[in-house]
Amino acid sequence: MKRFLNKKTLVTGGASGIGKAICQRLVEEGADLVFIDRNIEAGKAFEQELSNQESSSLFVAADLTNEDEVERGFHETKNPRTH
């Protein structure tokens, strides 16, 4: 059984490294995923890679050292765009 089936998850720094590995595992476990990263190219590529999974995934581009981007990023997380 998938441990995170129908659970909403949010990962920061999810486009590479440990954050990416966490995202992959959450999706494997059935989570609906939102991941935030400042690397737009890597984020979009990873979002595309995850699109083949049963769970939903959304990439939000934001630099978490910038307060305005954090606010925009969380707004987008709460009100996701449609693909």
Number of separate structural domains: 1
Oligomer kind? single chain
Rough shape?
globular
- Tell me the strand percentage band: 15-25%
Based on helices, strands and strand pairing, what is the structural class? alpha/beta
How many DSSP H or I helices? Answer: 3
Strand order of the largest sheet: 1-2-3
Q: What integer value in Å does the Rg equal? A: 12 Å
Write down how many β-strands occur, each being a DSSP E stretch of 2 or more residues: 3
What do you see in this structure?
This protein is of the alpha/beta class and 83 residues long. It has one domain. It is built from 3 helices and 3 strands, in the order βαβαβα. The protein has helices at 17-28, 40-50, 67-78; strands spanning 8-12, 32-37, 57-61. The protein has a 3-stranded parallel beta sheet with strand order 1-2-3, sandwiched between helices. α2 links the parallel β2 and β3. The model has no long low-confidence stretch (mean pLDDT 91).
